[in-house]
């Protein structure tokens, strides 16, 4: 069987799933927007509780609180891998499709809420904090979630077609590519976790929030 060059395979994948990628990106963006709006709906006591938690966190950070970097890295990477692993599992079933969409939306909501809350409470300093400590690792995490979400929905739709429309279609090659994609994205998330563990705390120490 003739092997298709990686560049052509990637181009074919993007062309085949372009509309799905656009849909997932729009869904994620809606989550970000909703998360930012959600900040304004918080009750005063909820904002005070969050402020107290963040103030304590930044105080401990600036006082040089010792944190085990290995444990922090494992925690961060574990959380990321669990997220894409769950999306992978949901993509293996037809009923998991809507849950994948919800997970993509919720990821956007968390990002939007985090940035929105920092900006709401500390204005320009908060935006700077978000730009230096939240954005960098999310430049890797967000594309991974979008790619994984698209792949999960695509595989789930393929299962639907193979079961109800194209009976007898060999699904194994697509399953193999789907699984290999998860492994590749896992390596990318490990880089994001390294940045989150070792670089982000250093950047946050440079910013004083008042």
From TrEMBL:
It comes from the Bacteria. It holds the Pfam family SpoIIM. The keyword Aminoacyl-tRNA synthetase does not apply. The chain crosses the membrane at residues 20-43, 86-119, 139-160, 172-195. Keywords: Membrane, Transmembrane, Transmembrane helix. The keyword Transmembrane applies. This is Stage II sporulation protein M. It comes from Ammoniphilus oxalaticus.
């Amino acid at each position: 069987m003739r092997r298709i060059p990686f560049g052509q395979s990637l181009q074919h994948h993007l062309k085949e799933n372009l509309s799905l990628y656009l849909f997932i990106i729009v869904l994620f963006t809606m989550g970000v927007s909703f998360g930012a709006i959600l900040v304004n709906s918080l009750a005063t006591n909820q904002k005070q509780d969050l402020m107290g938690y963040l103030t304590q966190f930044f105080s401990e950070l600036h006082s040089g609180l010792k944190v085990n970097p290995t444990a922090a890295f494992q925690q961060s990477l574990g959380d990321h891998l669990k997220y894409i692993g769950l999306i992978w599992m949901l993509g293996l079933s037809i009923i998991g499709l809507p849950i994948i969409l919800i997970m993509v939306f919720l990821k956007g909501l968390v990002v939007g809420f985090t940035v929105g809350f920092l900006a709401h409470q500390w204005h320009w300093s908060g935006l700077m904090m978000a730009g230096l400590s939240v954005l960098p690792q999310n430049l890797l995490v967000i594309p991974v979630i979008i790619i994984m979400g698209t792949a999960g929905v695509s595989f789930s739709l393929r299962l639907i077609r193979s079961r109800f429309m194209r009976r007898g279609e060999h699904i194994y090659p697509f399953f193999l590519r789907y699984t290999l994609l998860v492994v590749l994205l896992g390596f990318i998330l490990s880089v994001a976790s390294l940045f989150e563990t070792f670089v982000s705390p250093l950047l946050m120490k440079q910013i004083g929030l008042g």
